[in-house]
């Protein structure tokens, strides 16, 4: 339980899938150290291309795999005494030729590469995942562009923004914010559908454009939102990926992708004079800058707010109680006591 920070009502490390690295940054046979749920872990890609995430310290005599360790075939070799471990965490070889100690085991974490990300599954009891992050169809879409921020916050607080209808106007400057349909709370998934307006960000004419957002939230670590700008036929995707580093500290990864424009005149008559590749680049750049700006508007609030367990909600706040009840499934029972 949290006892020394503003999230004392929330257990620090929820169960579920969390982004720990971008696939493109993980080179073959490279060992990368990351902070994750209050501990050091190492990530590496084996000779066959499999991604492995395991605790960083060798169980033999405590050396750190990320400082001098090497990927050897389908496992990792400790820099201290040369013990080798496979991707299940089992010691398979010693440097002495003697049988590996049966109790020389490293904790490993289920990992998968999906949508250009290395996702790692955490469970406080070490249980295996019963659900996965779905693969996106990326045909006709630009590559995701990514940004990372280290913040004082909690994954549940970040994801709660998706149902906090009231903050879209006050914090982000949207108008006419309305839920198009009721949120759907399924086992591991939350679906939202909102509509709202904002001043035109493309040609700077002071005319609001209508945007519809369809969001899919998977656990407390992975959200994907499709935004449809109805006036211009622009559709974008936005990822929000909070990962717990420490008690009260997260890494927030955000990404955006744009469906490639087929008819430039739908955006503006002058857009027709641009080559399609240049037009799509300009739109992608504009969208990403706008998205970074939107997300950054929440930073001061997230980093300086406290979690109110029994919040006195008003009509217009959104389905926050339903969200919090849904979120409880991502904690083991004893951590909620």
Which key features would you list for this structure?
about 325 residues, mainly beta, Rieske Iron-sulfur Protein, Naphthalene 1,2-dioxygenase Alpha Subunit, Chain A, domain 1, 2 domains, seven-stranded antiparallel β-sheet, four-stranded antiparallel β-sheet, globular
User: Which word captures the global form?
Assistant: globular
Q: What is the residue-mean pLDDT, rounded to a whole number?
A: 91
Reading the helices and strands in chain order gives: EEEEEEEEEEEEHHEEEEEEHHH
Which structural class best describes the helix and strand composition?
Answer: mainly beta
Largest sheet: 7 strands, antiparallel
- The CATH class of the largest domain is Alpha Beta
Radius of gyration, Cα only, in angstroms?
22 Å
Alpha plus pi helix count: 5
Number of strands: 18
Write down the CATH topology of the largest domain: Naphthalene 1,2-dioxygenase Alpha Subunit, Chain A, domain 1
In the CATH hierarchy, the architecture of the largest domain is Alpha-Beta Complex
Q: Share of helix among residues?
A: 10-25%
Strand content: 35-45%
Low-confidence stretches: none
Count of all domains: 2
Strand order of the largest sheet: 12-18-17-16-15-14-13
In whole angstroms, how far apart are the ends? 9 Å
CATH H level of the largest domain: which superfamily?
A: Naphthalene 1,2-dioxygenase Alpha Subunit, Chain A, domain 1
């Amino acid at each position: 339980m949290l006892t020394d920070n503003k999230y004392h009502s929330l257990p620090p490390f929820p169960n579920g899938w969390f982004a720990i690295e971008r696939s493109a940054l993980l080179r073959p046979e490279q060992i990368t150290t990351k902070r994750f749920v209050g501990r050091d872990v190492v990530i590496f890609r084996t000779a066959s291309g499999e991604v492995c995430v395991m605790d960083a310290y060798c169980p033999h005599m405590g050396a750190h795999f990320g400082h001098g360790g090497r990927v050897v075939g389908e496992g990792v070799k400790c820099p201290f005494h040369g013990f080798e471990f496979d991707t299940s965490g089992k010691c398979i070889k010693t440097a002495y030729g003697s049988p590996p100690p049966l109790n020389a085991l490293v904790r490993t974490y289920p990992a998968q590469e999906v949508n250009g990300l290395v996702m790692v599954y955490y469970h406080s009891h070490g249980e295996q995942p019963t659900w996965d992050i779905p693969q996106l169809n990326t045909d006709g879409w630009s590559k995701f562009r990514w940004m990372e921020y280290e913040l004082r916050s909690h994954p549940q607080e970040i994801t709660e923004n998706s149902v906090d209808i009231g903050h879209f106007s006050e914090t982000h400057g949207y108008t006419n914010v309305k839920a198009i349909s009721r949120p759907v709370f399924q086992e591991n998934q939350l679906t939202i559908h909102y509509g709202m307006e904002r001043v035109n960000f493309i040609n700077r004419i002071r005319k609001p454009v209508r945007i519809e957002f369809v969001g899919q939230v998977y656990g407390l670590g992975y959200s994907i939102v499709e935004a449809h700008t109805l006036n211009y036929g622009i559709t974008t995707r936005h990822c929000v990926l909070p990962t717990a580093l420490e008690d009260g500290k997260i890494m927030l990864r955000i990404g955006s992708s744009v469906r490639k424009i087929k008819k430039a005149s739908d955006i503006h008559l002058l857009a027709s004079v641009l080559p399609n590749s240049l037009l799509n680049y300009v739109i992608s750049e504009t969208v990403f800058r706008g998205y970074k700006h939107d997300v950054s508007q929440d930073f001061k609030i997230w980093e300086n707010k406290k979690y109110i367990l029994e919040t006195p909600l008003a009509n217009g706040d959104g389905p926050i109680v339903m969200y919090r009840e849904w979120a409880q499934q991502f904690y083991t029972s004893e951590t909620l006591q």
